[in-house]
Design brief:
The complex is a heterodimer of chains A (105) and B (397). Chain A has helices at 2-11, 18-37, 57-104. Chain A is an all-alpha fold and 105 residues long. Chain A is 74% helix and 0% strand. Chain A has one domain. The model of chain A has no long low-confidence stretch (mean pLDDT 88). In chain A, α2 (18-37) runs antiparallel to α3 (57-104). Chain B has 397 residues and is mainly α. Chain B has a domain at 36-288. In chain B, β3 and β4 (297-300) form a beta hairpin. Classes of the chains: A mainly alpha (105), B mainly alpha (397). The interface between A and B is medium-sized, with 32 and 38 residues.
């Protein structure tokens, strides 16, 4: 129950927040894994203009482009979002610490 | 409570810093498997070569897989079916010279591939391996022949005979070489057509390399013709801005296209057997005008930066912004390996690992973004060297 409450809190977190970044990284990772499990990687031969047998050119092109975008968000977008989440959390913690120090003084 | 605007600004700043932290080091975090020894200098074959070769051995020993993949390939471009054979045969010949224990198996596959190719050519003509427009109008030189098909058949037969003599192919090879030379010598551009009134530098450079191989095998000497061809090419086939050979021209010698990455890397490799300094110069110029290095990843453009061409079957889908051409980048691997350029080769391999989608299965390796011909070029690039060295040794260089 506590975990569910925590998850709900994260899902509702604003986009520009550490939790928001982590949630979006998770969604992008999930999309990449779903497309990978669905065999979309096999459509990448479209990049060399070789269309797999048994699928229309339009579908093959769509599948190739969808996988291409999801792959690059996986290797670029996901790590960047996670690093940004850590940086933002550190930033907030630093600000809080500075406030506490100022109040004490 | 932090204001929304402040949160957005902080978030954007963090995203920017994260991008600066991740992107320049991406290659060093994720794509480092070829960094130590990009061009294999150890004995025999590298584990990488073995994994790539396993994919081709499966292709040539499994009729169902071959028919399925050849179907995909031929639907796109019948030329690729043929070129995949050539590059795999050249790879097998080099593999045999690197690891003699493989010779028996490699030669039996080479013989099977070449005999099947000759059978298809004799039944259906060279058109079987050409794109449909080969039939659209008559060839200028008659009877019609394809320099594309002739040159690569001679390369395959010659490579086989360099590894181990095959008497039955001596005469067929001699006859095909005779026809190629006759057609080249009676052409105003000293080049023979691959398509009606279309000569390709790629095919004619291959033809020169093939003739050179035939010379060392059968005792001919076409060095005066090679010199004449190179001098003529320097005068008429060089694009003035880059100094790189154009890729396509009419039989009379008028350029139909400028330099192309899908052509020049292989041309430089073939010309190593004809005029090494000129080949080296072409390679260096191609690096200057076509190579792109981005954060440790290397790719090849299809066209020089200030020239634009039309995307076609040779270039593949040109990736916007980075301007990477799959066709040109694949052949750049061969160029870089041929000229011992391990920096460029390593960068190209890193790009391949990142953007060509490797698929491993039971010890074999293929790239999902590639096809049979692309994978064969890659395999050839990992073993290239001993065959050309053997030609030079026998030629007394």
């Amino acid at each position: 129950m506590k975990a569910w409450t925590l998850l709900k809190g994260w899902l509702k977190a604003p986009t520009f927040s550490p939790a928001g970044f982590v949630v979006r990284a998770g969604v992008l990772a999930l999309i990449y894994f779903i497309l990978s499990m669905a065999g979309f990687r096999n459509y990448m031969s479209v990049l060399s203009l070789t269309f797999p047998e048994g699928s229309s050119r339009n579908w093959a092109t769509f599948a190739c482009m969808a996988y291409l975008v999801s792959y690059f968000t996986w290797i670029l977008g996901v790590p960047i979002l996670l690093i940004a989440a850590v940086l933002m959390a550190l930033w907030k913690r630093g600000l809080r610490a500075a406030k506490v120090t100022n109040n004490t003084v | 409570m932090e204001s929304r605007a402040r949160r957005v600004v902080t978030g954007c700043l963090c995203l920017g810093v994260a991008t600066l932290l991740w992107v320049p080091f991406l290659r060093h975090f994720l794509f480092t498997e070829h960094d130590r020894n990009p061009i294999w200098t150890g004995p025999g074959l590298s584990p990488y070569t073995r994994a790539l070769a396993a994919r081709h051995l499966a292709f040539w020993s499994d009729p169902a897989q071959r028919s399925r993949e050849l179907g995909d390939l031929r639907r796109s471009n019948a030329e690729w079916d043929f070129m995949g054979r050539t590059y795999f045969v050249l790879a097998l010949a080099n593999m045999s010279l690197r690891e003699p224990a493989l010779k028996t198996q490699a030669l039996s596959i080479i013989d099977y591939i070449v005999e099947e190719t000759l059978r298809l050519e004799s039944r259906q003509g060279f058109y079987h391996f050409s794109m449909p427009y080969a039939r659209n109008r008559p060839y200028v030189d008659s009877p019609a022949r394809s320099q594309f098909v002739d040159s690569e058949i001679v390369l395959m037969m010659g490579a086989r005979r360099l590894v181990e003599e095959k008497e039955a192919w001596r005469e067929p090879l001699r006859e095909r070489v005779r026809l190629m030379i006759e057609r080249m010598q009676r052409s105003p551009s000293l080049s023979a057509e691959s398509y009606p009134d279309e000569c390709w530098t790629f095919d004619n450079a291959n033809a020169l390399a093939a003739i050179r191989i035939a010379d060392v095998l059968d005792g001919g000497d076409h060095r005066p013709f090679f010199r004449e061809w190179i001098e003529h090419a320097k005068k008429t086939l060089i694009e003035p801005h880059t100094g790189i050979l154009v890729s396509e021209y009419t039989r009379a010698g008028s350029a139909m296209d400028g330099p192309e990455g899908s052509s020049i890397w292989m041309v430089a490799h073939a010309l190593q057997l004809i005029d090494e300094p000129f080949a080296r110069d072409q390679y260096d110029r191609a690096c200057r005008h076509l190579r792109r290095s981005i954060c440790g990843f290397d790719v090849s453009r299809e066209w020089p930066a200030d020239a634009t061409g039309r995307q076609d079957i040779d270039s593949g889908v040109v990736i916007p912004i980075v301007e990477a051409s799959p066709g040109a980048s694949g052949l750049a691997l061969l160029g870089a390996a041929s000229f011992g350029d391990s920096g460029f080769y390593g960068g190209l391999l890193a790009s391949l690992e990142m953007a060509a989608f490797p698929v491993s299965n039971n010890g074999s390796l293929r790239y999902a973004a590639s096809n049979q011909v692309g994978d064969a070029v890659l395999l050839y690039s990992t073993v290239v060297g001993p065959l050309w060295a053997e030609v030079k040794r026998r030629g007394g260089e």
